[in-house]
Amino acid sequence: MSAVEGTNYFFRKAARIMDVGTPIETLLATPLREVKVQVSIEMDSGEIRTFLGYRIQHDNSRGPMKGGLRYHPMLDQDECSSLASLMTWKTAVVNVPYGGAKGGIACDPSQLSLKELERLTRKYVDQVQDVIGPTRDIPAPDVNTNPQVMAWIMDQYSRYHGHSPAVVTGKPLELYGSKGREAATGRGLLYVCREILRDLGLPVKGTRFALQGFGNVGSHTAQLLWEDGGIVVAVADVLGGVRNPQGLDIPSLFEHVKRTGTVTGFAGGSPCSNDDVLTADCEVLIPAALGHVLTRENAPAVRARLIIEGANGPTQPEADEIFEKRGIFVVPDVLASAGGVTVSYFEWVQNLQHLSWEEERVNAELEKTMKEAYERVAQVARSRKVSMRTAAYILAIGRVGKATVLRGI
Ligand SMILES: NC(=O)C1=CN([C@@H]2O[C@H](COP(=O)(O)OP(=O)(O)OC[C@H]3O[C@@H](n4cnc5c(N)ncnc54)[C@H](OP(=O)(O)O)[C@@H]3O)[C@@H](O)[C@H]2O)C=CC1
Ligand SMILES: O=C(O)CCC(=O)C(=O)O
């Protein structure tokens, strides 16, 4: 099953419960625009290399399209299309006034110098600047992109269109970024985690967590859970993992990662593989790396009671069915990982108004948004007797579908 078929499987399951009908179902599943561009640059060596760039714009019925940019060797049109549609449903679940998009460049940034990365980013913007914009489509960070990349995007876009901080979010604080954006996805996940654990009768304090991914989402989530008294028993990055059934000391792990660039080799735990983390003995599993990692093959071995999806699309449909049968709760990506786009929305609002919010305000508004979204999804799940994932899609399809029909087709 392709990535987009996987996302559409979840979408269609909900759409059929809602009985939206084939014409609207097809309309909502079909991306508005798929852009694939040549991104050719001169390498430091003088060699010319050509990369492929993508921007898939899925839906704009509720507002400008929104979603991150990923730099990864395995990125392709199918993956971007799946991620773009997830953004449509995610922005609708948290009710921020956006549609969905996603994009990036198929490249391995670890093999590029900083100057090459800058040239690549600027060239990508040259190629897509006429389809993005503060009222059209607003990129943001995703895997292997960061505030520096967002700063280059802002600068390059502004060369064409005049000073435009609101064209991109996740920027550095010195360049109109929002306080709280860096940690926002992890913080949003924490707020949702507190809600569901309360409903399951478990406090965060003393609960055992395993996380796959220790980048923006995974590392902030681990830190915040640790601050809440959670016991992080295993983490992994692309090179491998580390586990400690007594709990990893997260501040020391951060020191280690700062020194070595990886969680592997951390003396406060024993080594494990990055897949071992998915089946670690814990109450809560948080995939926070790439998609499609929970499969028909490993789902029966998952030991967690609860899976909170920090990554986009970590659970394949067959694994999702297995978790449902096994009574393992899954808090879906479109809810659990929505903290990032929520604070991106706050950043965009601040940029449009030329002002800056204090971090306390950002975090308080984020908490309110995440709690409301959780409550709405939980209500639909209870009343329709469906999983949290199907409930989230029902909520989102209702909002996107109504906006589409009201605007006129
Ligand atoms: N950034 C954001 O605001 C949001 C991100 N997401 C999603 O969260 C996920 C992570 O994104 P983000 O944290 O931004 O990305 P980062 O690039 O900051 O971090 C990705 C992390 O995943 C690790 N990783 C990559 N491949 C594997 C693997 N095979 N096994 C274990 N770990 C692996 C990386 O390891 P290494 O560092 O060693 O390469 C790194 O620790 C993605 O699915 C993304 O779409 C969702 C919502 C918002
Ligand atoms: O912050 C944003 O606009 C998008 C974040 C993102 O790409 C995601 O939620 O997957």
UniProtKB/TrEMBL annotation:
InterPro entries: Aminoacid_DH-like_N_sf, Glu/Leu/Phe/Val/Trp_DH, Glu/Leu/Phe/Val/Trp_DH_C, Glu/Leu/Phe/Val/Trp_DH_dimer, Glu/Leu/Phe/Val_DH_AS, Glu_DH, NAD(P)-bd_dom_sf, NAD_bind_Glu_DH. Keywords: Coiled coil, NAD, Nucleotide-binding, Oxidoreductase. Residues 352-383 form a coiled coil. Pfam families: ELFV_dehydrog, ELFV_dehydrog_N. The record marks D142 as: Important for catalysis. GO terms for biological process: L-glutamate catabolic process. One of its GO terms (molecular function) is glutamate dehydrogenase (NAD+) activity. NAD(+) binds at T185, N216. The active site is at K102. Residues 178-408 form the Glutamate/phenylalanine/leucine/valine/L-tryptophan dehydrogenase C-terminal domain. Substrate binds at K66, K90, S344. PANTHER family: GLUTAMATE DEHYDROGENASE, NAD-SPECIFIC GLUTAMATE DEHYDROGENASE. Belongs to the Glu/Leu/Phe/Val dehydrogenases family. This is Glutamate dehydrogenase.
